[in-house]
Amino acid sequence: MSRDQLISMARENLGFVKAGTTQLQTDLLRVPASNYFDPARWELEMDRIFGRLPLMLAFSCELREPGAYKSIVAADVPVLIIRGRDGEARAFLNSCAHRGAQVMPEGTGKARRFVCPYHAWTYDDRGSLVGILDEDEFGDVDRDCHGLTPLPITERAGLVWVALKPETPVDFDAFLAGYDEVLENFGFENWHVVSQRTVEGPNWKIAYDGYLDLYHLPILHKDTFGSDFPNKAIYTAWGPHQRVSGPNPMLLPLEDKAEADWPMEALVGGVWTIFPHVSIATFDAGGRGVLVSQLFPGKDPGSSVTVQNYLMADEPDEAGRAEAEEQVDLLEYVVRVEDYATGLRQQRALIAGGRKEVLFGRNEGGGQRFHQWLGRLLDADDETLNDALRAGDPLADA
Ligand code: FES
Ligand SMILES: [Fe+2]
Fold first, then answer.
1. Contact 101 CB / ligand 1 (< 6 Å)
2. 221 and 341 co-located in one domain
3. In terms of domains, do 230 and 334 share one?
């Protein structure tokens, strides 16, 4: 079924290629400039967006074996994800039941027991407390009530989503809206992480707007991607998640072939975003690859941190790895020096005031949809959140 969706997207794309047109919305969207820097708005985003929605924090291929774990700090919340001996991935607040210390340092690895560095309280692969140092002297502690705090988690399409609050009201199916079934076409569970880097940037939305925006490519990235790079964008949405691709003339030869023979690589090109903070961009240096950018708000409205993960479908040999590293060097440069440096200056100019609104054009449906979804989910309280997620495409309402 999801391959059918890929085929129909390719056909829609071909329609634009042949007509020499692109996808346009009915109207411009005006977004208040203060949405990018107002501290009250930012607090609400931390609470209602990053605090409630599942965030894509790990790849199944980082947690292949029983005991494999990943410790990551997301929106200032330390999270520990562990592949249990039963094959299940579980997520926990990475905070010890004794006095709250972070149990595992950030990174990935494999362990049988998870030992707190402060006083050596010990947890197993299910987060259960299994060891208390000098227990006789410590006093009575009911181990059953003092495990690591579990967080809601789902693992689909080789990707692991975790909600940062144990009591999140969100229905994961309503949130994913079938997007995970389309992402399954990548087969990420068998891919390999070959590079991980972090890049600091401006307000998370200033940074994220750029991932949905092809309009800027031949302008801001003229020195890297080139001034001939196409700037037209076609967006397809599943709930708040969007795929972005340019009208792609390379699809034209497919028309002479049976749909069953259309190669997967041709069907999944472009950028796949996962609301509210991830972008998956496809590349082919040294083999089939993707740059998965995980964007997290920093400690204040004016900062963010992006983890750039480069994954490859096949484990690269030395030459393939070198080619991939070169690709990632370029992408890190593009994001740090072109996108985020521009975003930091944009942010300073917006904070300076005098401009009440920013604009998203008819040709920028991706940014329009993102900001409309954000507004809708910020407005929803815990009782109405799932209805808001199921309420359909905000651009279709316009
Ligand atoms: S805080 Fe973890 S053992 Fe004391
Ligand atoms: Fe960019």
1. yes
2. yes
3. yes
Alpha-carbon distance 310 to 383, whole Å? Answer: 38
Q: What is the pLDDT of residue 59?
A: 98
| Residue 275 in contact with ligand 1 by CB distance below 6 A | no
Residue 343 has pLDDT above 80, yes or no: yes
**Is the domain of 205 the same as that of 337?**
yes
Cα 8 off chain centre by: 24
Which of 156, 177, 204 terminates a domain? The answer is: 156
Distance 133 CA to ligand 1 centre (A): 9
Residues 137 and 258 in one domain: no
Model confidence over 57-73: pLDDT tens digits?
999 999 999 999 999 99
Query: Is the same domain home to 143 and 191?
Result: no
| CA geometry: angle 184, 189, 195, nearest 5 deg | 115
The reply to whether the predicted model has a pTM over 0.85 is yes
* Residue 119 in contact with ligand 1 by CB distance below 6 A: yes
225 CB under 6 A from ligand 1? no
Per-residue pLDDT of 235-244, as tens digits, reads 999 999 999 9
Same domain, yes or no: 235 and 360: yes
pLDDT reading at 397 higher than 80: no
Q: Is 351 helix (H, G, I), strand (E, B) or coil?
A: helix
User: Could you tell me where the beta strands, DSSP code E, fall in 53-191?
Assistant: 55-59, 68-74, 77-83, 89-93, 107-110, 114-115, 122-123, 129-131, 150-151, 153-156, 159-162
**Which pair of structure tokens corresponds to residue 8?**
């129909």
Q: Is 147 exposed, middle or buried (CB count within 10 Å of its CB: 0-12, 13-18, 19+)? A: middle
293 shares a domain with 233: yes
116 in a structural domain: yes
Q: Is 118 near ligand 1, meaning CB less than 6 Å away? A: yes
Domain holding 343, by residue range, is 2-53+187-397
Per-residue CA distances from 383 to 266, 272, 327, 375 (Å): 41, 29, 45, 16
| Average pLDDT score, the chain | 96
Q: Which atom of ligand 1 is nearest to the CA of 100?
A: 1
pLDDT of amino acid 2:
83
